[in-house]
Amino acid sequence: MVILATNKIRKIYGELENDSYTIALDKVDLTINKGDFIAIMGPSGSGKSTLLNVLSGIDKPTSGEVTIAGEKLNDLSGDDLALFRRKQLGFVFQDFNLLDSLTVKENIILPMVLEKKSGNIINERVEELASLFGIETILQKYPYTISGGQQQRTAVSRALVNEPNIILADEPTGNLDSKSSEIIMECFEKVVNELSTTVLLVTHDVFAASYCHKVVFLKDGSVHSSITRSGRRKAFLEQIIDCQAVLGGRNSVF
Ligand SMILES: Nc1ncnc2c1ncn2[C@@H]1O[C@H](COP(=O)(O)OP(=O)(O)OP(=O)(O)O)[C@@H](O)[C@H]1O
Ligand SMILES: [Mg+2]
């Protein structure tokens, strides 16, 4: 089942008339099915963040269409767009974006409280996610007293509480050491395998990308190539590194 599709999206910054423009995305077609686990990679400036912003409705494409769960994002604005984003999408950021004045549990349940869910349902959901991601013992702690990896697991739980169709993550391992990155990627594997939620992440990290089922490489705003994992993660990691070397840019230097 197709959950997200883009139809020739272009994003142009600046004015075409006076030559001071950048084509950040150029006719990008992307089809994402329910349960997909996809990494977007590409050199700096290739359009990854722009793509994520357009997919999440933060930014409007200059032309082309984004359809999520059968709804055309172009047709939505204001409150409708905000509501759609809250119901359909979960966001995970590089710097966790947790509220320091709230406990881990309060951070996780915030989107449910905004949806006016009942206390019982909220508690059940928190228990389910906390045990899935191994953060049961830190629910009463504050974000600044826990590790980066624990903060990111909290953020992943928060992104999932309202059962979104898709999780969009921007460099989710960017601020984590290698051990915490591994744990977070294993969490995303659970999101896909056990909660059947689609995950799309943007990353520079080949190790993180190797957990995904597919990697899409952008170059100069267009889809350059994509590879699908067929066997062991280690073999996929080698394949990703080879593709990056072909792609060039600063990411080809390790
Ligand atoms: N607000 C903006 N105004 C003008 N140009 C922009 C804007 N945002 C991005 N760009 C340009 O669009 C292109 C794509 O940028 P984008 O941020 O999507 O790249 P990226 O792949 O996320 O790069 P990085 O890996 O460095 O984060 C770049 O040439 C960038 O300079
Ligand atoms: Mg970026």
Layout of helices and strands:
Elements: E1 2-15, E2 20-33, E3 37-41, H1 48-55, E4 63-68, E5 71-72, H2 78-88, E6 89-92, H3 104-114, H4 119-133, H5 148-160, E7 166-170, H6 178-193, E8 198-202, H7 206-209, E9 214-219, E10 222-228, H8 233-247
Parallel strand pairs: 3-8, 3-9, 6-7, 7-8
Antiparallel strand pairs: 1-2, 1-4, 4-5, 9-10
Helix pairs in contact: 3-5, 4-5, 5-6
Briefly characterize the structure:
This protein has 254 residues and is an alpha/beta fold. It has eight helices and ten strands. The protein has a single domain, classed as Rossmann fold, CATH 3.40.50.300.
Describe the structure.
With 254 residues, the protein is an alpha/beta fold. It has eight helices and ten strands. The strands form two sheets. A six-stranded mixed beta sheet has the order 6-7-8-3-9-10, with helices on both faces. A hairpin with a 4-residue loop joins strand 1 (2-15) and strand 2 (20-33).
CATH topology: Rossmann fold
Order of helices and strands: EEEHEEHEHHHEHEHEEH
Distance between the termini: 37 Å
Average of the residue pLDDT scores? 94
CATH architecture: 3-Layer(aba) Sandwich
User: What name goes with the CATH superfamily?
Assistant: P-loop containing nucleotide triphosphate hydrolases
The stretches of 5 or more residues where confidence is low (pLDDT under 50) are none
Helix percent band:
25-40%
Radius of gyration: 18 Å
Strand count: 10
- In CATH's first tier, which class applies? Alpha Beta
Q: What number of domains?
A: 1
**Main sheet: strands, sense, barrel:** 6 strands, mixed
Shape: globular
Give the bound compounds: adenosine-5'-triphosphate, magnesium ion
